[in-house]
Amino acid sequence: MDFSLLNWYTILGIFIHNCVITITDNNKNQENNARDVRIAFSLVTFTYLMIGTLFYITFPMRRIVSKIISSITFIPMMDLPSLRDGFYSFNLRQSSHSLCTL
Predict the structure, then answer these.
(1) Which of 12, 83, 91, 100 is least enclosed, having the fewest CB within 10 Å?
(2) How large is the average pLDDT for residues 58-67?
(3) Are 89 and 76 in contact (CB under 8 A)?
(4) Half-sphere exposure of 48 (CA within 13 A, CB side)
């Protein structure tokens, strides 16, 4: 399966979350809204947890540490020279690791 297809599923899931209010306003049985939304969010939470767990189980731990966790660096949102100049600065390209080289 192509990874880009999984991205589209995630985007569709986020879009559906934004449509929940419109869907629940226009349904026939308004008294079931709380139950239906609770069931829907529970199923979505279960799906995300299942995907995250499968990723964690199937991906080797040494690669998780070397490629993903070690690439997370502290990015200061404000530093003293930029405060003197009157603007905030941050650097998004501090990491030397790339997730594309997994």
Answers:
(1) 100
(2) 71
(3) no
(4) 9
- The answer to whether the pTM exceeds 0.70 is no
Give me 2's structure tokens.
């192509």
Cα 56 to Cα 50, 60, 75, 82, 102: the distances in Å are: 10, 8, 26, 39, 14
Rounded mean pLDDT, 48-68: 79
How would DSSP label each residue in 34-55? HHHHHHHHHHHHHHHHHHHHHH
For the chain, the domains span 1-58, 61-102
Q: In which residue are the tokens 């070397």 written?
A: 66
